[in-house]
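Morning F.,

Quick status update on the modeling queue. The single chain you submitted on Monday has been processed. Sequence for confirmation:
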Amino acid sequence: MFAEVALHRRIPSKFDVFTYSVPEGLALRVGQIIQVPFRKQTLPAIVRRLHRETPAYPTRPVEAALPTALTDRQISLAFWMCEKYGVSFSKAIDFFVPEKIWNPARKITKNAAVETHESLIDEQTSFDFSPHPEYAAVKDFAKKLFSSTGKVLLIEKSRIPRAILFSCLAEMLPNGQQALFLAPEIFATNQFAGCFSGSSAKFHSEMSETEKAQVWTSVKNGETNVIIGTRAALFLPFTNLGLIVLDSENSESYSEKRQPNYHALDVAKQLTELNKSKLIVVSSMPRAETWHAMESGEYEKIAWESDSAKSRVNIIDIKDERRKGNFGIFAEKTIEKIASTLTQNQQVLLFINRKGEAGALMCTDCGHILRCANCTSPMALHTEGGLKCHKCNLAQEIPIECSVCGNTRLRALGMGTERIEAEIKKTFKKARILRLDRETIKGSSKISLEELNKADVIVATKIIDKPLNLPRLKLAVAVLPDSILHSHDFRTEERVFGLLTHIKTLASGGDFIIQTFMPGHRVFRYLENGKIEEFYKEELATRKQLGLPPYNN
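Structure tokens below.
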């Protein structure tokens, strides 16, 4: 008997599989972790195939077999990834096995010390659902979702209480079945981890290797019924997976940047097929590919919308403000609305696409933009003085003159969170302001949900694109989102539409103001009238004409 194995070691893809002889009396199975001699050392490997065809070259024997093995479905999923993404088996299999499973030299105990790296925003994980005014409605809605026989695309037209929905769905599973709740970021796994009864666990890439191995083993042994994780949780050894819920489908975090460059939804769909389980995809604005799949019959579309939680969208043309002599950051109507919202002890969210004071420093004579000497990214102006590169953190003083033409007429372009924060402090002196960007929460610092809810005004960048629960939030303002529409990426408008739709959903039952120089842009137009079906119709028609996904991958 011979075993084709994939080594747990970085080697060129052309050497993906090695053949070893199997000693008599050693029982092996496909997916089993073994130890094999390789050059002058012993390495862990996984059995890819067993056969009786004698190779044309001498082979070395397998040294030992570990009791641990991947499930048949994990092996099938790994082969599917090899075929779909054109990667080697050893590259694919690395996603399935934590390091401590490959190398079990250190004993794994349930009380082992765990070194975790928390997300930038921490949230309480203790929930009491019964007093929630929408508890009964959400529970009935969960029954509707669960009764569907195929894949479901849940369109979130207004903010749905996720903790209640996910808890209800998990409770509907028959005894012994497992549920996987996927979130785009670690933050959300922390947010929902405490809302499930019974045996549940988190799983994400920033957990310690010891904790990953603990969860992996408990899932394989059927000891954990509910997993809340990022895309890394897709590769756990489920034994009886009955439900997959993929939240915030439009998040870019679901795309793996390394080879094999998979998207979590594609893997989730294949996992659904292998396990004959239910799949529920949740999004306020799904990707165009997913919407197209829904229209083609792959998903049943079910929408959630609470009449009391509809947001009102108001688009303000900043050109009109300039004609009236208002050259400030905010339109007059915006200031009035902020004032009235704060007077009612309600919360305001101000979204801006930049951190810092301004986007860049430009010479108004020659048009030269000051760039970082290290990476050529535009330098950003900060209120504490000086310029800073947000890509490599290089800092320098503000120059007196242009380095190209020598003129002194240098002007700051755009605006950032610091400038908006300063403006709000000047206008609303008693307001409690919280700035939320990578500068304020970098390193080990994090902001709790309690701090977010206590703030009267939140000034935030795209970091706000998370499933937050902000009950006091009744006014959201997008301050000149025009800049994020200027990109050559064909997905730009879809992503901006999704981001702004999310912000609108955060302010459910309140108002959403968009300040723009382009009030006629289709993204803003469709946000205002709420006709997302028309947006997708136009977007898909354009992509079909240009041969872009989903019509050409």
